[in-house]
């Protein structure tokens, strides 16, 4: 999963990578926490020290990337598969 996320990130940011507070591994972990443990985005945001919107954006991006890599069956928060 982590390899698929790194490939998707490189594909989207070919010219210049963006600095983020959250590492790719943390993005995957927080998405899995959200999906598996049904933790609120506010709770996860407080743990990582970022806003709820940042967590929501990261969860949607990770789910979309995993859907496109065929590593995720379905998603409640991300409906569209964009290849």
Strand content: under 5%
Secondary structure category = mainly alpha
Q: How far is the N terminus from the C terminus? A: 17 Å
Number of strands: 0
Mean pLDDT: 84
Pfam family, one: HTH_Tnp_4
Protein name: Transposase family protein
Domain Transposase Helix-turn-helix: 21-66
InterPro entries: RNA_pol_sigma_r3/r4-like, Transposase_HTH_dom
SSE blueprint and pairings:
Elements: H1 2-12, H2 24-37, H3 41-48, H4 52-68
Helix pairs in contact: 2-4, 3-4
Quick structural gist:
By secondary structure, the chain is an all-alpha fold.
Structure description:
With 83 residues, this protein is an all-alpha fold. The protein is built from four helices and no strands. The mean pLDDT is 84.
Key structural traits:
83 residues; mainly alpha; 4 helices; globular
């Amino acid at each position: 999963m982590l390899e698929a996320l790194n490939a998707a990130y490189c594909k989207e940011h070919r010219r210049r990578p963006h600095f983020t507070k959250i590492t790719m591994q943390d993005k995957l972990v927080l998405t899995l926490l959200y999906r598996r443990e049904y933790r609120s985005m506010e709770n996860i945001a407080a743990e990582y020290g970022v806003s709820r919107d940042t967590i929501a954006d990261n969860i949607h991006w990770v789910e979309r990337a995993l859907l496109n890599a065929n590593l995720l069956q379905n998603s409640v928060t991300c409906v569209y598969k964009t290849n």
